[in-house]
Every structure is written in C-alpha cells, then in structure tokens.
Design goal:
With about 300 residues, this protein is mainly alpha-helical. The protein has helices at about 10-20, 25-40, 45-55, 60-70, 75-90, 95-105, 110-125, 125-140, 145-155, 160-175, 180-190, 195-210, 215-225, 230-240, 245-260, 265-275, 280-295, 295-300. Helix 7 packs parallel to helix 9 (about 145-155) and helix 11 runs antiparallel to helix 12. The radius of gyration is 27 Å and the shape is elongated. The protein starts with 8 loop residues before the first helix and ends with a helix.
C-alpha cells in the first residue's frame, strides 16, 4: 500500500530517463519497472526499458518490453523497428520481418530499414523480395556502393543474373576504382557468357586489393575454363594464400594440375584440401578420379 498518493508513472519514467543520462542504469531500470507495475501499458517506460536492454545486448529481456510498447502504440516506427532488430538477434527472422514490414508501412522511405530487410529476406531465402527492397533502396540513394552490392547479391541469389548484371553496370559507372565493383562486374560478365570482357575487370580488382580473394579465384577459374591451366595456377594459389579454407579454389587448383598432367602435385593439393575440410565432397571426388587415372582403383573406390 502507498501512504498518500501513488507515484505518477510518467514522473517515474521521466526520472528514469534522467538517471540514464547520468549513467545510473540500475536506478533507471528499477524506476521503469515501478512505473510499469502501476501502468502496465505505459509506452515510455516499456519502450525505454526495452531499449536499455537492447543496447546492452540483453535481447531476451528486451523483447517483452518492446513488444508491449509496439502493442500500446502500433504506429510508432521506433518501437516496431527496434522490436524487429531484437527478434533478429534472437534468431526469429520471420517475426523480425513481420515487425519491420509494419515499420516500413509507417516510414516507407527509411533507407537503413530497407537495406536491413533486404539482407534478412536473403537469409530467409526470399530472394525476389530481397531484390525488390534493394531496388527501392537504390532509388533513394544511388551514391551508396553498399546498396548496389545488396541488390546484386539479392539478384544473384534469385538466379537472375541479367538483373544482377544491370546493377553491376550501374555500380561500375559510379565507382570505377572500387575493387568490389570491378569484381562484381567482371563476374557478371562471365556469367553472361562474356568472360573475355570480364577478365580486365577481375584483373583490375586483383591489382587494386591484394587482400581480396574472390577476384583471384574467379580469374583463375576463367583461365582454367579457357584451357589456360598454367596461367590459372598463380591466381588460384593467391586465393588460397588469402583464404586457406576456400574449397572452390582448392578444387580448381586440383583440376588445373590434373589437366597439366601433374598428377602428384594434384594429389598433394587435394589431400591438403581434404585435411582442411574432410566433409567437403569435391576434393574426394577429384581424388577418386585422379587415383583411377593413376591405376589405383582401390584408392579410387575408397
């Protein structure tokens, strides 16, 4: 029982905010919880307490308070946005997208949310939806290379390479010196059946960033497909130097050495790949083919 008049929950919430500004977080937490005991649907207390927990990465504690805030004020963008972010951190992607869709209805041109949702749709394998949102984001900001890359990835995941090529063309026009722009454009030209056009862009990406493994791998892969196995060895080895667990590069290196008749070298590299990742099937498959060619059918079968 209160002696006299009960505390005003709004006053308690305001005191909690003042406590946060002075970094007295435990006091703020206690005041917001007290306010919610008096007024369970008080938006300011529920939202700010949820935000406090979220900012401290205490997402399980944040979720019920942010959910309460979103219920009490369903048209509040920040409550929906933050609840979605919390649910995503908890691994509840579908629930997060539901909240973010509601937030996007409130603020349909919120660029960071469009980008986040495009990525989250991709994680859920909703590739076409991811691409649509990425295109919407691009219309709002053509000068952000990151948005172009999100759109390209979405179309690649949707297996719509003509659309990915169009975005890559826009990217390379705006950012001609960017290594990733050169890689993506070179890669998409390769996918479009224009590998010779793509090679200079991959080469430019390799020269511009010596720490970026993908251009080295795809450059080597294209050379290998063109029957230029000897030339493919150096970029493939560079890709593996940068990323030792790059299985596609190990397999391509094994194929290149086999095509050159360097069977023992191929066996050595493929065994290193197996040691790196024993469960990956492709090095085992190539080793089987290699042992069969070498006349050792027992090892091939094994």
């Amino acid at each position: 029982l209160f002696l006299g008049q009960a505390p005003d929950p709004e006053d308690l919430s305001a005191q909690a905010l003042a406590a946060v500004q002075q970094r007295r977080f435990a006091e703020a937490e206690r005041l917001w919880k007290q306010a919610l005991e008096i007024s369970p649907n008080l938006f300011s207390a529920a939202f700010n307490l949820g935000f406090l927990y979220h900012s401290r990465a205490q997402h399980a504690q944040a979720e019920p308070y942010l959910a309460s805030a979103a219920r009490s004020q369903p048209k509040d963008f920040n409550a929906r946005y933050l609840l979605g972010a919390t649910l995503a951190q908890l691994g509840r992607g579908e629930d997060a997208l539901r909240q973010w869709r509601a937030a996007l209805e409130i603020r349909p041109e919120h660029l960071p949310l469009l980008q986040i949702m495009a990525v989250e749709y991709g994680k859920g394998r909703y590739f076409r939806e991811a691409a649509v949102l990425a295109e919407r984001a691009l219309k709002l900001n053509e000068d952000d290379a990151g948005i172009h890359l999100v759109a390209i990835k979405a179309y690649q995941d949707a297996a719509d390479h003509p659309a990915a090529l169009k975005i890559a063309e826009r990217l390379i026009r705006r950012f001609p010196a960017l290594p990733r722009a050169n890689f993506e454009y070179g890669y998409e030209l390769h996918r479009a059946g224009r590998p010779e056009e793509g090679l200079p862009y991959l080469k430019k990406a390799m020269g511009a960033d010596q720490t970026y493994e993908e251009p080295f791998f795809f450059y080597g892969e294209i050379l290998l497909q063109e029957g230029r196995a000897e030339e493919a060895l150096a970029p493939l080895r560079k890709a593996l130097e940068l990323k030792p667990d790059y299985m596609a590069a190990w397999v391509a290196l094994g194929r290149a050495l086999m095509s050159l008749g360097r069977q023992e070298d191929a066996r050595t590299e493929l065994l290193r790949a197996v040691e790196m990742n024993p469960r990956h099937p492709q090095p085992h498959l190539l080793l089987s083919q290699l042992y069969f060619r070498m006349g050792n059918e027992g090892l091939a079968a094994q």
